Amino acid sequence: MQCDLLLRAPRALLAEGQFHSDVEIAIRDGVIAAVGSQLDWSASQTVSLSGESVVLPGLIDLHMHPARSGSVFGLNPDKMALPYGTTTVVSQGDAGSDNIDQFHRDTVQRCRTRVLLAINLSRVGESTEQGCFSDPKWLDPDACLAAIERYPEIVVAVAVNCSRAACGDQDPRPILAAGLQVASSSGLPLMYGMRPDEEWPFADQLEQLRPNDLVTYCFRRQPHCIVAAGQLHPAILAARRRGVLFDIGHGRGSFDFEVARQALANKFPPDTISTDLQRGHEDQSPPHSLLSVVSKLVAVGMDRRLALRSVSERPAAWLDRDDVAGTIQAGRVADLAVLHWSEQPSALTDTSGQLLEAAVLTVEQTWRAGQLVEPLGNVR
Fold this sequence. Notes:
By secondary structure, this protein is α/β, with parallel strands linked by helices. The protein folds into two domains: 77 residues, Roll (Urease, subunit C, domain 1), CATH 2.30.40; 262 residues, Metal-dependent hydrolases (TIM Barrel). 23% of the residues lie in helices and 27% in strands. A hairpin with a 5-residue loop joins strand 1 and strand 2.
């Protein structure tokens, strides 16, 4: 059999979340044609990876801000995500019903990265410096539903952020209710940002969420925190038991080493790991990426294999799309990330400036639909 590329990997994440050794991956026409230990395929190009490499399906960032126009937080994912092994990104609310056409035209259609959207329940999305729900006229469930119907191929969730920064002086309760109405009518999950427990009890918020709804910003310290005195809040544990999922959403203020350490000590790892990558990260050194966020979680106690599955297999299961591969198997798109763990520790910081030294995950190669992505300078 003939293929375009034969990739020989010392380790790779295959079906059912298992890592296998000495794997060969045959790629033809941008699709994985075969996977095995000793494939009898001839190839136009053969790449043999180093003994420290691990190959994952292209990484998936469920919460970032990929927007080439129309968003105050937006950046170009082809520059800030794709070279770092992330081949699929989900916009957390950059576009609402008023600017989804612009988002589709300027970002989805112009990016090599696969860009999907958790549509903002607010009409204006993140197009203004004001909170997206600060003006009651911007809450329009019917317009949001109509936008979802126009773009079912890119809209994967409904984004509802009930923080004070998003809602201003508006009561968050009817905003969540409207979001659940749209999510139920469209058959989509909710991506939810919580209000602090003292302003609106976690139990009241989370009891309204459904299995597969995703709570983001789960390991932040301020303005809300899911741990107190080293223990998880009971409402958080109850929500997980009901099937509500929890995502990192690191961002510029939503990841704290000690909160993460305490949650992991209580056997509460995140379901998915995401960056909340946004314009304010563009000049950060080292670059803010899924690789750095995974490294931080492993540094405070998360199992390496589970962390890697949380940026591949697990977000792919949440998306449940044929065009997003969460494992490496025949018939899936050839989006691949070749990674390895550094031998020397590097400095890692959380969003309050706390520092620790630990091994970091780095990228060797990114393949998007069977084509090599050129790295940007000193990629890490």
